[in-house]
Amino acid sequence: MVHSRPLEQNWRGFLSNSALLDWISEIAGKKPKDENLYIRAVTHGSFGPEDFQRLEFLGDRVLGLTIASFLYENFQDEPEGMLSQRLNGLVSGKVCGEIADALGASNHLLLGKQARDDGARQSAKVLGDVMEALIGAVYLDHGMEAAQKFVLRHWESKISGMARDVRHPKSALQEWAAAKNRKMPVYELVEKSGPHHDLRFTVKASVPNVGEVEATASSIQTAETAAAQLFLEKYT
């Protein structure tokens, strides 16, 4: 049995938040047994000490195992490298944020004033973290099987939309440059901006004597990947 620490007194009003609990029942397909878990899953650190970070940590592992198991069973002819590329794409913060946004998670976030003013409600990173925290909450509340069903149901469109060519954009760009006898792509951090909870990184990707593009994302690695994809779309 999972024992949750008592919530702070100023949280108690949210225990009767029927809109939140109805939403959880809808997206989880089950009525919450431990309401505190889900309140914590949508609580940002700016709102109170019992925030979503520990649940996010747990949910991230449940998500990774669930998607990895699904790929292992359903792409039996693919080597480890290709499976890893698919996995990395499906469990990225960007995808988690997109799914949380589609589910309407932003309507239920508990945020402090500064975070609200900083736009945390629309932050892809915050939404991605909350999505992982919700997975962790379902796991603790209903067990692994329910958590796996929760993930696969909400990741279904992302999985079915995967391209058969799963080459990473940076690898594809490098292969293109080599095939065209061009110099290798260069990635340069141009700008780092935004509040601490929602940092944005702008990266420039260039191939000498061909061109350059810029892309912005919540991590340098994601920005580099996006820039490589933009370069491929623009110049190849």
- Major sheet: 3 strands, antiparallel
Structural domain tally: 2
Mean of residue pLDDT? Answer: 87
Give the structural class: mainly alpha
- CATH class wording of the largest domain: Mainly Alpha
Helix content: 40-55%
Q: What oligomeric arrangement do these chains adopt?
A: single chain
Instruction: Give the name of the CATH architecture of the largest domain.
Output: Orthogonal Bundle
Give the strand line-up of the largest sheet.
1-2-3
The arrangement of helices and strands along the chain is: HHHHHHHHHHEEEH
Total strands: the figure is 3
Fraction in beta strands: 5-15%
Rg, rounded, reads 20 Å
> What is the 3D form?
flat
Q: What name is given to the CATH topology of the largest domain?
A: Ribonuclease iii, N-terminal Endonuclease Domain, Chain A
Number of helices: 11
CATH level 4 superfamily of the largest domain? Ribonuclease III domain
Terminal CA distance reads 56 Å
Instruction: Pick out the low-confidence regions.
Output: 1-16
What does it look like?
With 236 residues, this protein is mainly alpha-helical. It folds into two domains: 18-165, Orthogonal Bundle (Ribonuclease iii, N-terminal Endonuclease Domain, Chain A), CATH 1.10.1520.10; 169-235, Double Stranded RNA Binding Domain. Helices cover 55% and strands 10% of the residues. The protein has eleven helices and three strands. Strands 1-2-3 form a three-stranded antiparallel sheet, covered by helices on one side. 33% of the residues are buried. It catalyses: Endonucleolytic cleavage to 5'-phosphomonoester. One of its GO terms (molecular function) is rRNA binding.
